[in-house]
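Lab channel / #folding
Pinned by the channel admin:
"Please post every new chain as: sequence first, then the structure tokens as a reply. Keep commentary short and put observations after the output so the thread stays searchable."

First post following the new format, from NK:
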Amino acid sequence: MATEPLLSRSAMPAEILIRQAHVLDPRCGLDAPLDVLIRGGLIAELGAPGATRPPSGAAVIEAAGKHLFPAFSDPHVHLRTPGQEYKETIATGTDAAAAGGFCQLIAMPNTVPTVDQVSVLEALRARARQQASVPTGFLAAITVGLRGEELTEMAALRDAGALGFTDDGRPVVGAGMLRKALQYQRLAGGVVALHEEDPSLSADGVMHEGAVSARLGVAGIPSISESTMIDRDAAIARYEDARVHFQHLSAAASVQALSFWRSAGARVSGEVTPHHLTLTDEELLGLDANFKMNPPLRSEADRKALIDALRSGVIECIATDHAPHAHHEKEMPFEQAPMGTTGLETAFAALYTELVRPGLLTLPVLIERLTAGGSLYGLNLPRVAVGEQANVVLVDLARDWRVGERGYRSRSENCCFHGRRLAGVVELTVAAGSVAFAAPGVRTTTLEEV
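Reply from TO:
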């Protein structure tokens, strides 16, 4: 791929001194208070806390008691552009990402029209260059129209800037079609990412098949709908020596399948969402469609298995699967409402509150998994190191906030954490060397000019 992988609108390089923040970057071995000087958009100096003098014209942020991390990377978002801008746009979606501490996004191709032709991809990339406040890349479809019947021109799409390929929102049902795609992938390059679901098993299900669905009397989606497809597709991937990534894992059986095939030599990886790590199907007892997503929230046993897999590294990264829907769509009767939840603005706080504070996950592991997603598609890992482009997020872990209390930067409000009180407030996000988000409390004159 000869083209630029991530695109965003032009912005002034940051000139900021962040004083006395507790810097945590597990990959760089940093876990201590430091001064962080950003000059010309690069990390210019890591100094003893309080000892670094700001250069002329630099903004100064007093950050004692706050934490600075490498900014987060999300390998799975839906920006609804083109065709469904009433739900989200590149501008609003990337603004939501910046407010959540993200410096990289990878958007899915199930748009209207589908990103299955070079002309659609090129138009989308041009729009990102004009509107994105956070560097954004795109996956193209595996099959034309996501119908599973005809492969896209994967090599041409790859040359035009596609980071990889997915029919996300739909599985590749035919084993033969997937095999052809993986053979083509060897020529085109890039990763094939798979939404794993057997439609003959999920059928008309609208939530996890279990005690809660039986109690409510609604059709359920069994966990084997996901895990059996992972088994099949991992076997095909190993046979073809292909690189495959499994999207939004939700079940213990899926973790077992991923672990087995990785140990068997298949080049496979997996992601998990904040909602599958923190919520269960018990949330659906009130038939609130904000908790309706695909794959569905599953049992407590499934949730625990996902946490264990994330901790051990069997699951390598966290992805939000940010899926905005308009208010009127989610207000439909539960069984008719669309599946999906937003997540960019709440991902870190939800995971810190529900997993780190109770001791289920350490903060360094959480930061590693939140920053790993882009590397699946060949993107550089965000790092807090001298000479690196500044991709950092400043967070006040001691502050709580109520989700949605002040609205959302996303165009849609279908957040499964709406109304919850979470810990961890993002105060500043620097992405690709420029200020992408600054909370009102940390803005200075210099930052406002940026």
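NK: Residues 243 and 267 are 5 Å apart (CA to CA).
TO: also worth noting, Residues 444-450 have pLDDT under 50 and may be disordered.
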